Amino acid sequence: MRIEQLEYVAAVARLGSFRRAAEEIHVSQPALSESVRALERELGVDMLERGRQGARVSESGRELLPHVLTVLDSVDRLRGAANKQHHSRRIVRVGTVNAATVPLVTPVIRQFREAHRSTQVEVFGAAHADVQRTLLEGSSDLGLVNYLQGDDLPPELETTPLVSGRPVVCMRPDSPLAARAAVRVSDLRKSPLIVMRPGYVMYRYLHRLLRDDVPAFSYSTDGAEMGKLMVAEGLGVTVLPDFSVIGDPLETSGLITWRPISGDATPVRLVIQRLRSGSAPRAARDLHRMFVQRAREMRAARAAG
């Protein structure tokens, strides 16, 4: 028994004619008629009565036709669900705290576009808690956030480590701090600081490092990308994970550089998160896989370098 045989029977029953059914379905009338005959032989029931005036459902067919229509309706729902899973999801939303956006996110988005040309990727920057809130609400598909050692992971979210590093001081190459092999905490207290606003991991880290003694002359900004731009414009220095600075176009073009913090090697992890429950669209699953693969390549490149 094949689905098209059931479709042929339903069409003949609805139109009252093998010819009209064949024209509507775009098959030859002999092929349609033979296919229906094969189904009737398989079932052992003549579902249609044939005559010069056309065809109509037989008495036995009237008992079976509702079952045929139920099967076809289920097939339509299955096809619709599959089509929605693969095609109707036109947007994949990714929240990020902006760390490693350029070295990590840009190559992944480029690769994703090659495989999913009809799917739009919306990348939005937000604080750590806001990225996780959108995941829990279902308004975003993936989230890129930072963690410090000892931070709790939300049980509702599946967390996959991507890259890890340590905090560094990001500065212009002509900054006096760039002449040092490492930057002391006391030097940071004397420098104009560009600080992530509350809600970012690096805000917590910097306040912990400085023991809440943050210089009065400082800037507050949203995310690493804006912080690096402000550094490049000479407004001050900022503290970011090394993986957010190394390989950034501003760093490779010589507009910013970095130095480690003397006596500090606090680990910072960038992870990707998604909801544990529910079935994610295939596009979101593919994007997640690409992030993990790109992070693996970044780790290998750092190890080789």
How many domains would you count in the coordinates? Answer: 3
Q: State the end-to-end distance.
A: 61 Å
Q: Characterize the biggest β-sheet.
A: 5 strands, mixed
CATH class of the largest domain: Alpha Beta
Number of helices: 12
Write the H/E string, N to C.
Answer: HHHEEHEHEHEEEHEHEHEHHEEH
Strand order of the biggest β-sheet: 4-3-5-12-6
Strand content: 15-25%
Q: Tell me the total number of β-strands.
A: 12
- SS-based structural class? alpha/beta
Radius of gyration: 31 Å
How much helical structure, as a percent, in the residues?
Answer: 40-55%
Mean pLDDT: 89
Unreliable stretches covering 5 or more consecutive residues: none
Report the CATH topology name of the largest domain.
Answer: D-Maltodextrin-Binding Protein, domain 2
CATH superfamily of the largest domain: Periplasmic binding protein-like II
Describe the global form: rod-shaped
Q: Please name the CATH architecture of the largest domain.
A: 3-Layer(aba) Sandwich
Highlighted features:
305 residues, alpha/beta, Arc Repressor Mutant, subunit A, D-Maltodextrin-Binding Protein, domain 2, 12 helices
Commentary on this structure:
The chain is α/β, with parallel strands linked by helices and 305 residues long. The protein folds into 3 domains: 85 residues, Arc Repressor Mutant, subunit A; 108 residues, D-Maltodextrin-Binding Protein, domain 2 (3-Layer(aba) Sandwich); 94 residues, 3-Layer(aba) Sandwich (D-Maltodextrin-Binding Protein, domain 2). Helices cover 48% and strands 22% of the residues. It contains 12 helices and 12 strands. The strands form 3 sheets. Strands 4-3-5-12-6 form a 5-stranded mixed sheet, with helices on both faces. Helix 1 crosses helix 4 and helix 5 packs across helix 12. It is rod-shaped and about 100 Å long. The model has no long low-confidence stretch (mean pLDDT 89).
